[in-house]
Design a protein that fits this description.
With about 475 residues, the chain is of the alpha+beta class. It contains 19 helices and five strands.
Length: about 475
């Protein structure tokens, strides 16, 4: 068996380890493994790159280079990646700090630059803007390298340069259309055939430019002057075309007046009225004006009537919608009440059936009185002329207590009744006493709260059967329990 020297094996091991360490990783895996690289990348994502490139270019460039190198090493699984990333984070922190300082020192320059950028100087004056930015970077570089005096002394110059670029962009946006229209008017020889109108257009254009020169924040006033210049330039071209037509047709003064009247007749034809061309021009114009005013008045009346009609319709629709909504609410309340009543009736019927199931026919009869439950207990036995509750009544009393438990929130009225044997006064006292005894039993044994219980006696005044038979008198000797829901 062939063997290798120890030195050879050691070198092979080194090579294998080196190859393993150089295994290529995906960017995601590399950032997951090298936390410093991931942290630097996140810091860059949060940074204001435009500001850093302008205000701290050296440190920012070194930080960018360090990030690229750190990512490359990380994807090669090179342990150097973290060290490079830490160095890059220092450069980035320094760049941010330098940019903050530069922002304070060059605040007015940056404000002027932002104004120029906002007005489109990067597009409208790309070359001049690029040259200004190049010179500005020289100042920020001077500040970054410690030459603050050089940086500060040229600040006014940079402010003015950016200010002029902003003004140029505003002028271009505001007056270029007017300049173009005036150029077309001149090409149409408006300055020759309509010199007064053309001169007025030039005057308005000059006014727009002078307004911006004195205060570039007065853009609205300048825009109004520029728009008026466009209108006047277009009018000068229209006048020029008409004058050219007159000259090409050798129009005399009478021809011009006839042409004017024919144009006026054609323009007023929709009025359906004959204009007095035989009258002086002032009367003619007054007649046309009067016809137009009458037409406008009629139109206004129609519009007013239409608006009134629309308002009435809108009011009617609103009223109808309000009433409909009210009807829907009322119907909803009725439906909810009906559902509630149905559920309540179903519930009381279920409880009625439950109470009826407690008693047999010899003990009590259970009735529904509206939403109340009446238990007519005729299975009681009291000694003649007595009100004491005998033990043989305990069973029915316990059943009554159970029935009451179905209605935990109800009030309970116990009423006693007798047959016709004995005096009226005696029977009244006896019926009351028996009702009180039953009430007390329900409280003490049946655990029905005393404030829920009331007792009353009716003696022989409310018989349910004839007192002429033993069976009828037995039925009349009863206790009734009314469960009031």
């Amino acid at each position: 068996m062939k063997t290798f020297p120890r030195t050879t094996l050691f070198l092979i091991t080194i090579i294998l380890v080196s190859c393993a360490s150089q295994q290529q990783l995906s960017e995601r895996d590399a950032l997951s493994k090298f936390h410093s690289v991931a942290s630097l990348k996140q810091s860059f994502e949060r940074a204001d790159h435009q500001s850093l490139a302008l205000l701290s270019q050296t440190s920012y460039r070194k930080a960018k280079d360090a990030l690229a190198e750190a990512k490359s090493n990380a994807m090669k699984n090179n342990p150097k990646a973290d060290a490079v990333a830490i160095s890059g984070q220092k450069y980035l922190d320094r760049a941010i700090s330098n940019a903050d300082s530069a922002s304070d020192i060059f605040s007015e320059v940056l404000e002027a630059r932002n104004g120029a950028v906002k007005r489109g100087a990067l597009e409208e004056s790309a070359k001049a803007m690029g040259e200004a930015d190049k010179d500005f970077k020289e100042l920020t570089l001077a500040l970054e390298t410690g030459d603050a005096d050089k940086a500060k002394i040229r600040r006014p110059e940079m402010i003015q340069r950016y200010y002029r670029l902003e003004l140029a962009s505003i002028k271009k946006a505001t007056v270029d259309d007017a300049k173009s229209t005036l150029f077309r008017a001149k090409a149409n020889k408006a300055h020759k055939y309509a010199p007064k109108t053309y001169a007025s257009a030039e005057k308005e254009l000059d006014l727009a430019a002078s307004i911006l020169d004195s205060d570039m924040n007065s853009r609205d006033r300048a825009a109004q002057a520029a728009e008026k210049s466009v209108w006047l330039a277009e009018r000068s071209m229209s006048i020029s075309d008409t004058v050219k037509e007159f000259r090409s047709n050798d129009f005399e003064l009478e021809d011009i007046v006839l042409w004017y009247q024919s144009q006026l007749s054609r323009a007023t034809q929709p009025l359906n009225t004959e204009i007095p061309l035989n009258m002086p021009n002032n009367n003619l114009i007054n007649s046309v004006s009067s016809s137009i005013e009458n037409l406008v008045a009629e139109r206004n009346e129609i519009e007013t009537a239409l608006m009134d009609s629309e308002r009435r319709y809108s009011d009617a629709m609103t009223s109808s919608q309000t009433e409909l909504a009210a009807m829907e609410r009322r119907q909803k309340n009725v439906d909810e009440e009906r559902i509630h009543q149905t559920l309540a009736e179903k519930k009381i019927q279920e409880k009625l059936a439950g109470v009826q199931g407690i008693f047999n026919e010899d003990e009590a009869t259970v009735y529904l009185q509206r939403n109340n439950i009446l238990i007519r207990a005729h299975g009681f036995w009291f000694p003649s002329g007595k009100s004491e509750i005998e033990s043989q009544n305990f069973s029915i009393l316990n059943k009554i207590a159970k029935a009451i438990s179905f209605f935990p929130g109800a009030s309970i009225v116990i009423s006693g009744h007798t047959d016709s044997v004995g005096s009226e006064e005696t029977n009244m006292v006896l019926s009351i006493d028996r009702a009180v005894k039953v009430s007390r039993f329900l409280n003490e044994v049946g655990n029905v709260a005393s404030d829920r219980l009331a007792s009353e006696g009716f003696g022989k005044t409310k018989p349910v059967e004839s007192n002429g038979t033993p069976e009828g008198r037995a039925a009349n000797r009863r206790v009734e329990v009314l469960i009031v829901n």
